[in-house]
Amino acid sequence: MGPGNVVASASDSAAGPGPDYARLALREPGSIGAVARLARAGALDAWLRRLLPDTPGVALVAVGGLGRRECTPHGDLDLILVHTGVPGIDELAASLWYPIWDARMGLDHSTRTVAESLDAAHDDVKVALGLLDARHIAGDPALSAQLSRAAVDQWRRTARRQLLRLRELVEERHAAHGELAYLLEGDVKEAAGGLRDVGVLRGIGVAGVADALPPQVRAAATRLLDVRDALHVSIGRRNDRLRAQERLQVAELLGLADGDALLRRIGLDARTISWSLTDAWRSVQRWNTAATRGGDPRAREAVAVRRPIARDVVAADGEIVLARAAVGPHPDPSLSLRVAAAAAQHQMPIARATLEWLARFCPPLPTPWPASARTALLTLLGAGTGLVAAWEACDRFGLTSAWLPQWTRLRGTPQHHPVHRFTLDRHLVQAAANASTWSREVARPDLLVLGALLHDVGKGLPGDHSEVGAELAREIATAMGLPPADVDTIATLVRYHLVLPDTATRRDLDDPATINHVAKLVGDTGTLELLQMLARADAQATGPAAWSGWKSKLIDDLCARVRKVLGGGQLPEPTLPDPALLAGPLPVVQVADDWVALAAHDRVGLLAAVAGCLATHKLEIVAAGTSTIGERAIIECAVNNRYGAPPDRELLAADLRRVGLDQLALPRRLGSGRKPVAGAEPRVIWGEATGAALLELRATDSPGLLFRVTSALAELGVDVRTARVSTLGADVVDAFYLVGDFDRDAVEAAVLAAV
């Protein structure tokens, strides 16, 4: 139904917007989309006109969503009652606002003269930006037109000051709400790349600085508006943050396959808007610079100076552009890569016109790549902090898919594990940028950054992503023209990129079988050092929860042991704990804000008692290691404060000392009455180790989990020789080295019951 067909009937009550509007806000597909938004605006216009008596010198003006005719099913109304100073205006305003409140609609309202509205806009950039959407609803149309013209004129006259303040507000909002393109539960209005940024782009365009709303931005904004419509319809109220539990239904309302397809579309649209806003701010900066320099011919000439920075690439007015000689009928296929590499190295943006030209005219790369293309890609990947912006700009114009056809599948793919802060493609680029930090730590930094870019290329395909990715990486490296030995190394890096972190956090590093197994997989010290630095780059690109000093120490320890074996030497002696834990009468206790250690007489159930003690102090164990030296058991734990308050060190130390003396009585309710946690079913995996049985538990974390599991083992009389506890976001992978005689089936059942 089009907007022209939505007319309120004479019987409609003035207390509500009428049945037409209500029907258009129902939970049905017809209430979603541009036509429905226009229809809602038409229904609201008709209702509001009936509410305003015919009074000379008064006009009702809509701003915000109604002003733009972008009314969502459960949106608010933003209205201005404009007047010329007529008497009784407050009573008239009340007669207008109260029916809206009675209809239980959100309302942001003001009653002002044109001059008062302009004064408010002069002092508040949000008000000024909102007035650019002003649209006449009822009353005197000439008064509405006067306000609209004056608001636009004032915006243009004060644009330099207003845009400066607006940019500050935008940056504050982005810092508070994050980047929509990379969020699993983003606010489609407030986050960077959301609908609020479309309004900012519109304001920049009205100021005459740039064509800030090109067709691709308008299309992206329309799709985000559709998402917001579907979200409102799905939950039956106003809410602009798309949460996980609403994702599937919103996707169905939009005709998308699943929640991942929805997230991917939102991410790509948000990137379009974000990139356009970044480009628009550069136009604002150039505009301000030109205005500051005024009419000085020498200043204008200085703006146009072109400085060569690489072959076929120059810098002009703070941007990367093509040298004139490069713009010919037969451009070099490696030109786009060389432009991107120069931009990343010099940390300068690529001009939009240059990106458009490259996307249109740069020919595809041959197979294998020419040496110039390989060199440019590796230079780009090794540029560090400049890589991300250059890659994102090229990705906006499809250049990255021309370099790597596999990139199309990776672009915008969400990663649902809570430790991941980026989409898959951005994670890979960030990992490559991180890897360049350690380029001097390895003999082949080129293979390090390329391996970082490709390490998760197999995600999203059936099978183990490391194994699948290794073959894809082999194909990519071969197409690039790498020598066969380098192709093998890249495939090995992708295949085994998780071996070091998984082994270091889940296995007993004092077990010779563990070290020999890793040495056999790695093969040589050169590959080992590449995998070591790749593990760092990958974890830091994943998110804060994926990396810690504890994890770094374990990986470094593992690499030192493997390096010894690969060099033909004997395994080093087991790493000894802090000497203070090995000396003096037992128990010995160490407590810090994020670390505790206990040395005590070894006994069955000691680890469970430590875990229970820490749980009573509301501390979460994020990593733990145990070892036994003679009769002395040593337990070291990295901990987090569950509720933010630091522990009372003296009280915690006293309780740990009682644990060491087997004198601490733990509350009976500890670990009981827990609520079931969502996630995949817990798993127990058995393995073999030197002189022990290896039990690996994979489960969703919950308070007191380690206490419950180790208590279950203690009740069966099972001795835990060594434990490696690793928490990653909502998941745990705990490895227990069990010694003695026991029934595996009974142990497995007890452990799963404890989870």
Describe the structure.
The chain is an alpha+beta fold. It has 32 helices and 15 strands. The strands form 3 sheets. It has an 8-stranded antiparallel beta sheet. A 4-stranded mixed beta sheet has the order 3-2-1-4, sandwiched between helices. It has a 3-stranded antiparallel beta sheet with strand order 5-6-7, with helices on one face. Helix 11 (244-253) crosses helix 12, helix 20 packs antiparallel against helix 21 and helix 26 packs antiparallel against helix 27. It starts with 17 loop residues before the first helix and ends with a helix. The model is unreliable at 1-13, 295-303 and 673-678 (pLDDT under 50). Keywords: Hydrolase, Magnesium, Multifunctional enzyme, Nucleotidyltransferase, Repeat, Transferase. InterPro entries: ACT-like_dom_sf, ACT_dom, HD/PDEase_dom, HD_domain, NT_sf, PII_UdlTrfase/GS_AdlTrfase, UTase/UR. Its EC number is 2.7.7.59, 3.1.4.-. It comes from Catellatospora aurea.
